[in-house]
């Protein structure tokens, strides 16, 4: 039976994010063929590219096992997607996204959380939160978490 | 159509950079960590070391990184093997990692590789 992990940000290395395939039974959920279903992921890695547009910031995170494209939307003030929300909430979301975008610079190590999805044949993350890590050991600890969870929880190798 | 993605840089230790190593290849994308032993402002070339191994780093493409001899840095870039068989990493990113636990870093690289290799084998079995 599939183990639902859609409501948590699964810690996966980039190699495994790129191996995710669409679940045949659950919309917006992805599988590694190990029983677990994923829709949200967390990655930590070095920002190696940055492409700013008026609507979104696209950047790539390299965690040593692969590069993952991340998209941080910046169109909260103009998109109809947010039109039903309270105006003060929209302003807050927009301000937060722009602050996060400003912190994304090439060479920094970032922790990215968001929804995983497929765009033009490649997996990418639609960013919910991105923070720049100041702890020089953050990436090491993330790798260790990915290995531990991959073996014991997600059963990537079982 | 898949997006062209930046080549991922494998995390390695300087001890793994020797001529017969699989990482010791022209244009290999790697991530190295070590203490900055020296740096020339004129050439933009620095030297990092870890234990008894060292590597030259070309920092010409790094705009916002201030380098301080004695601090520990992590660089991502492409390896260039010169005609005299000496290697230099042309860095595209760099960051100060003073405070990094190098022993934990080395051990974790090994664990991560085992995890990735086991996953690759499983994938091959599934495809069969």
Structure description:
The complex is a heterodimer of chains A (158) and B (128). Chain A has helices spanning 14-17, 87-103, 138-152, and strands at 3-4, 9-11, 21-22, 30-31, 36-38, 40-52, 56-62, 67-73, 109-119, 122-132. Chain A has 158 residues and is an alpha/beta fold. Chain A has one domain (4-152): OB fold (Dihydrolipoamide Acetyltransferase, E2P) (Beta Barrel). The longest helix of chain A has 17 residues, at 87-103. The two termini of chain A are 15 Å apart. The mean pLDDT of chain A is 91. Chain B has one helix at residues 102-127, and strands spanning 10-11, 29-40, 45-50, 53-58, 72-81, 87-96. In chain B, strands 2-3-4-6-5 form a 5-stranded mixed barrel. In chain B, a hairpin with a 5-residue loop joins strand 5 (72-81) and strand 6 (87-96). The mean pLDDT of chain B is 90. Chain A binds chain B through residues 13-16, 19, 33, 46-49, 60, 62-67, 69, 105-109, 119-122, 135-137, 140, 143-144, 146-147, 150-151, 156-157, and chain B through 1-3, 5-11, 31, 62, 64-65, 72, 74, 76, 92-101, 104-105, 108, 111-112, 115-116, 118-119, 122-123, 126. Chain A: Residues 43-130 form the OB domain. Chain A: It is found in: Chromosome, Telomere; Nucleus.
Summarize the structure.
The complex is a heterodimer of chains A (158) and B (128). With 158 residues, chain A is of the alpha/beta class. Chain A is built from three helices and ten strands, in the order E-E-H-E-E-E-E-E-E-H-E-E-H.
Spatial order of the strands forming the largest sheet of chain A? 6-7-8-10-9
What's the CATH class of chain A, please? Mainly Beta
Q: Count every helix of chain B, treating DSSP H or I runs of 4 or more residues as helices.
A: 1
Output the helix-strand order of chain B: EEEEEEH
Sheet having the most strands of chain B: 5 strands, mixed, barrel
CATH-derived topology of chain B: OB fold (Dihydrolipoamide Acetyltransferase, E2P)
The greatest inter-chain interface is formed by: A-B, 39 and 39 residues
Question: Hey, roughly how much beta strand do the residues of chain A contain?
Answer: 35-45%
Task: Give the strand line-up of the largest sheet of chain B.
Answer: 2-3-4-6-5
Q: N-to-C SSE series of chain A? A: EEHEEEEEEHEEH
């Amino acid at each position: 039976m599939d183990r639902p992990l859609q409501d948590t940000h699964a810690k996966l290395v980039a190699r495994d994010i790129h191996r995710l395939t669409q679940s045949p039974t659950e919309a917006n959920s992805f599988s590694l063929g190990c029983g677990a279903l994923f829709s949200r992921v967390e990655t930590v890695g070095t920002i190696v590219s940055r492409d700013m547009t008026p609507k979104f910031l696209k950047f790539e995170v390299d965690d040593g096992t692969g590069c993952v494209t991340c998209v941080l939307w910046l169109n909260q003030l103009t998109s109809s997607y947010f039109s039903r929300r309270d105006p003060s909430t929209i302003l807050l979301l927009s301000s937060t996204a722009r602050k996060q975008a400003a912190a994304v610079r090439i060479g920094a190590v970032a922790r990215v959380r968001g929804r995983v999805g497929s765009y033009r044949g490649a997996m990418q993350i639609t960013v919910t939160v991105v923070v720049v890590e100041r702890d020089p050991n953050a990436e090491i600890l993330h790798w260790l978490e990915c290995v531990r969870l991959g073996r014991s929880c997600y059963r990537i190798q079982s | 159509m898949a997006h062209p993605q930046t080549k991922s840089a494998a995390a390695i230790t300087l001890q793994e950079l020797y001529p017969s190593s699989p990482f010791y290849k022209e244009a290999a994308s790697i991530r190295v960590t070590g203490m900055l032993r020296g740096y020339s402002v004129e050439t933009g070339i620095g030297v990092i070391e870890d234990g008894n191994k060292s590597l030259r780093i070309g920092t010409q493409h790094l705009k916002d990184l201030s380098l301080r001899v004695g601090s520990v840095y992590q660089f991502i870039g492409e390896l260039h093997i010169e005609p005299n068989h000496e290697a230099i990493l042309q860095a595209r990113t760099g960051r100060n990692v003073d405070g990094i636990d190098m022993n934990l870093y080395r051990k974790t690289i090994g664990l991560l590789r085992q995890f990735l290799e086991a996953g690759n084998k499983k994938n091959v079995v599934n495809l069969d």
